[in-house]
Amino acid sequence: MAHDKPASILSQPTAVWAVAFASVIAFMGIGLVDPILPAIAESLRATPTQTEMLFTSYLLITGVAMFFTSWLSSRIGAKRTLLIGLALIVVFALAAGLSQNVESIIGFRAGWGLGNALFISTALATIVGAASGGTSSAIILYEAALGLGIAIGPLLGGLLGSWSWRGPFFGTATLMAIGFIAIATLLRKDPEKLTPTPLSAPFRALANPSLGFLAAAALFYNIGFFVLLAYTPFALVPLGVSSAISLGFIFFGWGVSLAVTSVWVAPLLTRWLPRTRVLWIVMPLLAVDLAAAGLVIGSVFGLIVCVIVGGLLLGILNTVLTECVMEATDLPRAVASSAYSGVRFLGGAIAPPAATLLAAMFTAATPFYAAAISVLVATALIMIGHRHLKRVDGVEGSLLEEAEALTLADAS
Fold it and tell me: Which residue numbers delimit the Major facilitator superfamily (MFS) profile domain (predicted)?
């Protein structure tokens, strides 16, 4: 295997740190509303499924918009795309905090998702393009920002949410404004030369077997991810855990676990094993953890343990999947990132309301069992597509396979 070694992960240009800082804030938006879901449902007299739509509108628009971010950034540049994304988040987060009903928040979260798509997809390509130390170092830095943001998001949401459910939205708007200033002042030029890509490029990129299998697997994997993140707060409410601050601390522990394994454990595992082998091992463990959450649905301690263990496993999987996508093809990074992220976030959009509907139709444990099955489907897809994923393991395919891959890339 010929993986890059993340030797100089801390020795990065100022522009990379600026984008990483803004990425932390952007990813805070994913978990920020988690601790205040029960409070929003109670204050605005919304059902759990309506409240879960705060995730769905955000992730659905994020996913759809991801397919078009590479087209835009390849024309106006990474810096402008990042700034437009941050500005949209500031505006819509502020509007959500001023809302008087759950329907308005759902709509403003959709606008927030548009800004998030412009930022997240471009941030990954920008960090990989500008960072020193190789692709793996850049991805670990990006995943560290993701983990830190996801960890801080619920904690900040819990702290501000204990004052008012509006607090987390105003807090995000303020922090994103700071991120906007950091990018505007510290990212002085685009890390890569502008090469306009066709509007259809991300869609055609999915015809590449390696990227197609990874994106499909990520869709089912993300269902498991967001059942654990978005449904668990409602599963904890009947057990007496409903305050924003309590939920904030639980999911802060989840986020810290995710950050630790994404930065330190994932690189160790991929140094010892091929990336696909790591996915084969860790994905089934995540499925077991989700099934265990269903089995201990009546225990506060049991659910919290499953949440923390889930965070440890998710950190490994996030980093390894992202590395696989960046190494799988010769396609431009922005195109590969847009195509993969678009499909991945659509899986996240499906999960939250589907989980509450399953719980209402069957039992409170059913969403966890469904999520476990979904993660096993993701594992099966990685195994079925393994012959197309030799490149991500540092193994060169035959000349015929290379020719087929290049033909698909040229078609996009």
Answer: 15-390
Q: What is the pLDDT of residue 361?
A: 96
What count of other Cβ atoms lies within 10 Å of the Cβ of residue 29? 28
Domains of the chain: 14-411 (1.20.1250.20)
pLDDT-flagged residues of the chain (< 70): 1-10, 132-135, 190-192, 395-412
Give residue 250's pLDDT. 93
What is the separation of C-alpha 222 from the centre of its chain, rounded to a whole number of angstroms? 8
Q: Residue 7: its pLDDT value, please? A: 45
Q: What percent of the chain has pLDDT over 70?
A: 91
Tens of pLDDT, residue by residue over 257-300, are 988 998 899 999 999 999 999 999 999 999 999 999 999 999 99
pLDDT value at residue 275: 94
**Are the C-beta atoms of 283 and 379 separated by less than 8 Å?**
yes
**Residue 406, pLDDT score:** 38
State residue 191's pLDDT score: 58
Distance CA 289, CA 332 (A): 36
Single-letter amino acid code for the residue at 142: Y
CA distance 198 to 71: 6
